[in-house]
Amino acid sequence: MATQPLNAATPFTYRRSPSATEAFEAWLKEHGQELPKHTHPWDVSRSDIYVEDRWQPIFAEMRAKAPINKVPESPYGAYWNVTTVKTIQHVESLPELFSSSWEHGGITIGDPPEDIDPAVLEERRLPMFIAMDRPEHTGQRRTVAPAFTPGEIDKMAAEVRMRTAATLDSLPWGEEFDWVDKVSIELTTGMLAILFGFPWEDRRLLTFWSDWAGDVELGLARGLEDLRFGVLSEMAHYFQQLWIQRMGAAPSRDLISMMIHSDAMSHMSPQEFMGNLVLLIVGGNDTTRNTMSGIVHALDQFPDQRAIFEADTSVIPNTVQECIRYVTPLAHMRRTATEDADLFGHQIAKGDKLILWYISANRDEAVFENPDKLIVTRENARRHLSFGYGIHRCVGARLAELQLKILLEEMHERRMRVNVTGKVERVRANFVHGFRRLDVTLSKF
Fold first, then answer.
1. Distances (CA, A) of 206 to 4, 30, 203
2. Geometric angle at alpha carbon 241, from 278 and 15, rounded to 5°
3. What's the average model confidence in pLDDT over 189-194?
4. Which of 13, 305, 329, 436 could cross-link 425 (Cys pair, CB 3.0–4.6 Å)?
């Protein structure tokens, strides 16, 4: 699936800075005191507990005392915490009662500012099929699903392995470098470029757009809304040019071609087009990228488990599942009640916001023994909820698993041990969970 260069005559410049992190940190320095406060002890929407990696005991207390509980007030409004495997799977199994639709609030904890102009809000809503209910969800999901069938995944394996090998072979031995930048971002943006048929020389734009799209905290930074929408509009413009180029071409395996030749997606509004691009880019970039970083960090933190991996390649498939569980690259998903409901004895009112904390369920003591430890031979590692559950389970799960499996295989082939030796910087967010920077040094095992 070769990428095609964008028309060089297109008179348009796509910004590449500031990054979402740089913009938000600059905003915090100047306006941090304006941020609304988190006062409830179980208000886990606060991003500091994730960037400082101290969220675990708060969720453990909830699972033990009140697996479902209501936070009456937060910067994101009132919401219900849903924290265990059993409770999350129950909610996810009732998609008509607990909606994902953007019309009810969508899939993340944030809501638009109450004082936003209705016309601006309408322009900036980004419908996407993960934030739709049936039947719209079904038709649009079926459009892109053929890109992720076992047969298609098998076709991609050789190219994934070649690019992974080339990336690992380019790394410096005995010299500290940032694994996130050199490996995780490089591999995931490359994979996205292949899926979209995206111009290779511009692939880092996909990471830039993904970070601006997936950072829920930006919604609290009044003044960054226009910048964020501007960045996403540039993303839509770029993809619109690719769409125009391919409209007259024969159907191909890239996702844009699949949308063009689909009854369900060929006539999307500009907002819906932008929304589905956000979904596919964030889903294909942030999640795998952060797991690729989380894998090497976790193996470094648990040398006994790293020794098992280094001694026996047969544990690699299960190690992938266990690392996806342990890392949990997306911390939550949201659902909104469409009717009054009883949820395990809790009275949920129509319109109530339920936050499904995958990051907590993946540490559920009732399902995973010793859940705060990475155990590469864990028998039920596949029970993790990192890909979601039910009709909205991640459509690209097989591809993510393939990329992670090949990464571990190629590391093992080179007897590559990744040692965390420098700065570890986590994502300041309650939605995307992972690493901004991970300084490492390579050695042989």
1. 15, 28, 6
2. 65
3. 91
4. 436
